[in-house]
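Tokens for chain A. Residues wanted.
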């Protein structure tokens, strides 16, 4: 059962002391301590240890989200892993970012096939710890980020010239690929996804929903 505004009705609300914790942006200088004494390691060192493999599927996907966030000017906050979409622009456009690449960190017999995930999902409300009843695509716009370099010797995910971005309104996926869970690059091109560079990305996202009053964006 839903509330009047369409949000899931919560029968057992979260106790005040267990409400969702606000995210705080770290500096990297925060130290690990035992009994109040620094052990000689800080958060920056942990980031270096845990997130240096930018070609791996997990970090490449997060990196693509960050790249899109920088392109639309909202990378000054903190990434949340629980939102039903990846990035929200200043004009309140909800963006889902999907990443793929031809080369991986591990040994390959062939280049990877370019496949992006597009399955509808049930939104989760981290404030109330409940899922929405129905599955749907949560974003207004999808950005499919492709790391195009095929040479492992020179591939560099930090070089934005090695990326291509394909922008597509979620409505088109709903109309022409409603039940699909994945989509290939060739199929994406048949949907007339707009191919842009990093510098063109912000305007492409804004233009993709221009005139669509259903989004409520401005």
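Reply:
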């Amino acid at each position: 059962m839903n509330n009047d505004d369409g949000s899931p009705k919560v029968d057992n609300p979260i106790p005040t002391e267990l409400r969702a914790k606000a995210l705080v942006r770290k500096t990297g200088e925060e130290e690990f301590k035992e009994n109040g004494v620094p052990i000689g390691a800080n958060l920056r060192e942990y980031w270096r240890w845990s997130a240096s493999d930018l070609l791996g599927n997990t970090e490449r996907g997060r990196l693509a989200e960050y790249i899109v966030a920088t392109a639309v000017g909202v990378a000054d906050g903190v990434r949340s892993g629980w939102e039903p979409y990846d990035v929200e622009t200043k004009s309140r456009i909800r963006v889902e970012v999907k990443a793929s690449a031809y080369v991986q960190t591990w040994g390959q017999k062939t280049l990877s096939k370019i496949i992006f995930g597009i399955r509808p999902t049930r939104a989760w409300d981290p404030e109330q710890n409940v899922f929405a009843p129905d599955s749907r695509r949560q974003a207004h716009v999808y950005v499919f980020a492709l790391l195009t370099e095929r040479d492992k010797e020179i591939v560099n995910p930090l070089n934005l010239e090695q990326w291509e971005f394909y922008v597509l309104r979620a409505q088109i996926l709903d109309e022409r690929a409603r039940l699909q869970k994945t989509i290939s690059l060739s199929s994406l091109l048949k949907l007339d996804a707009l191919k842009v560079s990093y510098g063109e990305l912000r305007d492409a996202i804004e233009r993709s929903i221009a005139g669509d009053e259903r989004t409520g964006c401005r």
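The radius of gyration is 20 Å. The first helix runs from residue 43 to 51.
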